[in-house]
Write a structure and sequence with these properties.
The strands form 2 sheets. Strands 1-2-3 form a 3-stranded antiparallel β-sheet, with no helix packed on it. Strands 5-4-6 form a 3-stranded antiparallel β-sheet. Helices cover 38% and strands 13% of the residues. It has helices at 16-41, 53-80, 144-151, and strands at residues 99-102, 105-108, 114-115, 130-133, 139-142, 158-161. α1 runs antiparallel to α2 (53-80). The chain has 2 domains: 16-80; 99-161, no CATH class. The protein binds zinc ion (2 copies). One zinc ion binds next to α3.
């Protein structure tokens, strides 16, 4: 059978877009639950707690988690596309290794730029501009900032600019 990209039951890895769609539906469901509880509340003679507030809380949290998973997947996949920095620790694209991360969000200690996700742990995904080669000949494709940072530590290695044509 042909793979149906629109179906959650379809094979293969889900795309970030599919996860985003699922997140939107969980969000919508959470809102529907709130609306439904409001309607139930307005009916006299119904027992309380038919639809407790924890239901939509749980749905909202689930939507959040699905969204986080979509983010993670998107960043991992973006890093695998050729042309992206493959370093597996984040930097500030302006300042370098100056990131601070707390509660799944990161910011730069130098310039104050903020990211709504944990940028410290995961692929960098900035545009790859350099090829770093260590003394043993191992190579890694990196962005300008990672390249600069690695150059100081490339003992006997090389940092080559990738020609842009
Ligand atoms: Zn910065
Ligand atoms: Zn990088």
């Amino acid at each position: 059978m042909f793979e149906n990209a629109d179906s959650a039951a379809g094979g293969g890895e889900p795309t970030p877009a599919e996860l985003r769609d699922l997140q939107a539906r969980a969000d919508a469901l959470a809102r529907d639950v709130v609306a439904m509880r409001e309607r139930l509340r307005q009916q006299p003679g119904l027992p309380r707690g038919v639809l407790p507030g924890t239901v939509d809380d749980a749905l909202t949290r689930a939507a959040q988690r699905i969204g986080d998973a979509a983010d993670k997947l998107a960043r991992v996949r973006a890093a695998e596309w050729s042309g992206s920095c493959t370093a597996w620790w984040g930097i500030c694209p302006r300042c370098g290794p100056t990131l601070q991360t707390e509660d799944g969000r990161s910011w730069c200690r130098e310039c104050g730029t903020r990211w709504g996700y944990d940028r410290s742990h995961g692929p960098c995904t900035e545009r790859a501009t350099h090829l770093a080669m260590d003394a043993q000949g191992g190579t890694v494709v990196v962005c300008a900032v990672h390249g600069r940072h690695m150059q100081e530590r490339l003992d006997g290695g090389l940092l080559l600019a990738i020609p842009t044509s």
